[in-house]
Amino acid sequence: MIRRMLVLGASAISLCAATAARADDAPVDTYSAPFAITVGGGTTGVDLGAAYAVNRNIVLRVQASTLNFDQTFSSSSADYKGSLKFNTEGAFVEAHPFGGGLFAAAGVLAGDRNVTVVGKPTGALSQTYVINGVPYTISQIVQVQGKVDFGGSAPYVGIGWDNTFSHSGHFGLRAALGVAFGDTPKVTLTASGPLANDPTVQANLAAEQASLSKDVKDLRYYPVASVSLAYRF
């Protein structure tokens, strides 16, 4: 999904640059309509935003996004079903160095970004959990569950194209690519069942948690791609 959004974002930037080149050459009275609202989507989910053009070179933007989807994934020795929930807010400053559509942005994303994970039994007949390479039947371990927390706020940098304030019309198109630099994801795993508190099970669970932490550590760098429509007023 993320790769698809990145390709979509890159394509939209190229399209905007080609179609808006003439409009950007014309002088525009930015102050006659310095506000805009945007609706779009991307790797942070469906988003709603608002922007204010300070002048032809500086735009201030706020945005709220929500993303929910389920995904099955694996660590080195176990399978999981994850439910990803992102509810984020962002504030950004966008610099348009040439007074046209091209911009560079910096800001911050904040809010809840986490994945709830539930261990999946393996084998249609045996129905076992594999924790740190050790199999446990569902009569011994009823469920393995946990959480991957991506932290609260994350600095953001990006580039993009936005012709909302670089022409005289009310409607604009915006596309952006960037990266949010969050904390190293924090993983917690727990188990339930007759053997859940057994010291050996707890040791294997801790080792599995460490393995999963290594598998998700690179997700602290979250790619942010978005495409949105704007209405200027």
Can you offer a commentary on this structure?
The chain is of the alpha+beta class and 233 residues long. The protein has one domain (2-232): Porin, CATH 2.40.160.170. It is built from three helices and twelve strands, in the order H-H-E-E-E-E-E-E-E-E-E-E-E-H-E. It has an eight-stranded antiparallel β-barrel with strand order 1-2-3-4-5-9-10-12. A hairpin with a 6-residue loop joins strand 4 and strand 5. The protein starts with a helix and ends with a strand. Mean pLDDT is 82; it is low at 1-31.
Supply the number of structural domains: 1
Query: What spatial order of strands do you see in the largest sheet?
Result: 1-2-3-4-5-9-10-12
CATH topology: Porin
Report the average pLDDT across residues: 82
CATH class bucket: Mainly Beta
Q: Tell me the span between the first and last alpha carbons.
A: 34 Å
Radius of gyration: 23 Å
Helix content: 10-25%
Strand content: over 45%
Question: Which short descriptors sum up this protein?
Answer:
single chain; alpha+beta; 233 residues; 8-stranded antiparallel β-barrel; two-stranded antiparallel ribbon; 3 helices; 53% strand; Porin; elongated
Which helices and strands occur, and which strands form pairs?
Layout (H helix, E strand, L loop, with lengths): L1 H18 L1 H5 L9 E8 L2 E9 L4 E17 L4 E17 L6 E18 L8 E4 L2 E4 L5 E7 L4 E9 L8 E11 L4 E7 L6 H18 L4 E12 L1
Antiparallel strand pairs: 1-2, 1-12, 2-3, 3-4, 4-5, 5-8, 5-9, 6-7, 8-11, 9-10, 10-12
